[in-house]
Every structure is written in structure tokens, then in C-alpha cells.
Amino acid sequence: MEKYSEEVFTTSLFEEKVAVVCGPAGNKFMLYTANDCLASWVPSAALKLFNWLDSPGLSVKEVISKGRNFLYSEILKPESLRQYISIMDSLAREHMKTYWDASQMVKVYPLTQKYTLSLACKLLLGAKDAHEVERISEFFHLTLQALFSLPINLPGTKYNRALKGLENLKQHFLNIIAEKKNTLLETRESTNSNVLSRMLLDKNVGSISGWVKLDGGKKEELPLFA
């Protein structure tokens, strides 16, 4: 930065070349030219971790288009948002009472993560059991630690632990989806407060399936957006 520029400079991040743009001009450039000059990027470790979906016969544009239409027409419509507000408020009150009120010193960041993940499990999956949310949280944090690490798959490394956690997370999600399918078939309910149930019931999104790659080459089918 001292030799060339404090506003624009190149460096390396996780073995990849990176350009850093700073200041108001940099923010303006990012906002107004993002679609023309920039492309999304994730570290190679993250790509390897999440390269576990196959979707034969479907293009990425088709999948994204159907997912976006479903998001705007079903998930973000006023009727759905009204349901979410009561759930968010109830969970926030419970979280504050359990983790904040009785403590003299509060570590905000980990507790905020805990609340956000609990809320996601509730809204997306309909998870009500605290033990189930805790299990998902453990697998999730194991995987998250390796997103910005070197993809070295050796025993004892963060990346190795993340791969094991990811296998457990995938299997857990498959179990949740299978259980949710059976529940919907038995109850025949047409309205649900969680996103997963709505996806499974939606004729456009629920019909989009993919294959989850499990350890050892085994594959399991699931709705792609679930």
C-alpha cells in the first residue's frame, strides 16, 4: 500500500490473487459496476466442501429462476411474513431470557450466532427440538471453521474435521427431509409455517430434485432447494 496506492492494490488471499478497492470511490465502483466488472468468488476450500450436489438435466439458470420465483411469490409475501414475525418475536424473547437476562457479562457475537441459527432452523426446517438445533449447530460450526482455511485433508486439521462434520450435516438434513415428506403425506396439510414444507408442497420447486454425494460414493436424492 505504501509503494503503490492506499485506495487500490493487489494482494493474495488463500492462494488466490485479490484486488482490494477502498474508500468512497471504491464503494461506488462496487455498487454501480458489480454486474459488469465483477464475478462472485468463494475460496477453493469452500468449493470443495460444498461440491456435493448433482442436478442432472437442469441448468443453473433454471434452478435459480424457479427458486427466485418461489422466494418472491411464497416466502416473502405479506401473509408469510406475518407468520414469521410472531415466531421471531417469541424466539427472541426466549433467547434473551435464557442467555442474556441472567448473565452479568454477555458475549454478543456467539449468542447472536446461536439465535440466528436457531431462527433459521425454526423458519426453514420447522425444527422445534432444542437438541436437534444444537446438533445442527455443532455440525455447522465445524464446517464453518474450514471455509477460510487451506484445503488440507489430513487427520487433526480443521478441514478434515469440517469434512466429517459436513457428512453428518448432510445425513441429518436428509433425515429431516424424509421425515417432513412422510408427515406431509400423512397429514395432507396445504399450509405450513416452515419453508421446507412449502418447498415440498410446491409443484414447481418440489419437483426439482438433485443428488447429494455422501461419503464413499453413495448418493441420496432430495429436493434441490431443500
H/E series, N to C? Answer: EEHHEHHHHHHEE
CATH architecture of the largest domain: Orthogonal Bundle
Give me the CATH superfamily of the largest domain. Cytochrome P450
Average of the residue pLDDT scores: 75
Outline: globular
Main β sheet profile: 3 strands, antiparallel
Q: Span between N and C termini?
A: 44 Å
Structural class call reads mainly alpha
Q: What's the CATH topology label of the largest domain?
A: Cytochrome p450
Work out the number of β strands.
5
Helix content: 55-70%
- How many helices? The count is 8
Q: Strand portion, in percent?
A: 5-15%
Total domains: 2
List keywords for this structure.
226 residues; mainly alpha; Cytochrome p450; 2 domains; 3-stranded antiparallel beta sheet; two-stranded antiparallel sheet; 8 helices; 5 strands; globular
Report on this structure.
By secondary structure, this protein is mainly alpha-helical. The protein folds into two domains: 8-37, no CATH class; 44-223, Cytochrome p450, CATH 1.10.630.10. It is 58% helix and 11% strand. A three-stranded antiparallel beta sheet has the order 3-4-5, covered by helices on one side. β4 and β5 form a beta hairpin. α5 (108-125) packs across α6 (130-145), α6 packs antiparallel against α7 and α7 (158-187) packs across α8 (195-201). The chain starts with 7 loop residues before the first strand and ends with a strand. Mean pLDDT is 75; it is low at 207-214 and 219-226.
